[in-house]
Amino acid sequence: MTDTGSEIEHPGLTITVYRINGATLERTPLGSRTLPPATEPVMSLAFPPCECPRCKDGKAAR
Questions:
Q1: How far apart are CA 62 and CA 54, in angstroms?
Q2: Residues 6 or more apart from 36 whose CB is under 8 A from it?
Q3: Parallel, antiparallel, or unpaired for β 27-35 and 13-20?
Q4: String of DSSP letters for 38-57
Q5: Nearest Cα to 13, choosing from 34, 38, 41, 40?
Q6: pLDDT on residue 29
Q7: Phi-psi region of 25 (alpha: psi -120 to 50; beta: other; left: phi over 0)
Q8: What's the pLDDT tens digit per position in 1-41?
Q9: Contact 40, 62 (CB under 8 A)
C-alpha cells in the first residue's frame, strides 16, 4: 500500500550494521547508511535472477 496523502517527507530506509560480542552480547555499531525513498512502489517481491557463473551456465541445481 502506498500512502499518497501524507505531506511529511519520509527520510528513506536506514540500515545499520552491528558487531555482536558473543561473550557479553554487547552490540557495537560499525556503520549506517540511509537509502533514499523509493520513487515508485515495488512491483514484485521476487528475488532477482542469480548472476553467479554456475547459474549463468545452467549448471546449478534448481
A1: 11
A2: 12
A3: antiparallel
A4: PSS-----SPPPP-SHHHHT
A5: 34
A6: 95
A7: left
A8: 455 555 566 678 899 999 999 999 999 999 999 988 878 77
A9: no
**Residue 4 in grid coordinates:** 499518497
Give the position of cell 505531506: 7
> Collapsing DSSP states into helix, strand and coil, what is residue 13?
strand
Q: For the chain, which residues make up each domain, given as ranges? A: 12-37
Cell of 24: 557479553
Query: What is the reported pTM?
Result: 0.44
Instruction: For residues 40 and 61, give the distance between their C-alpha atoms in angstroms, rounded to a whole number.
Output: 34
Residue type (1 letter), 51: E
Which of the four pLDDT bands, split at 50, 70 and 90, describes residue 55? confident
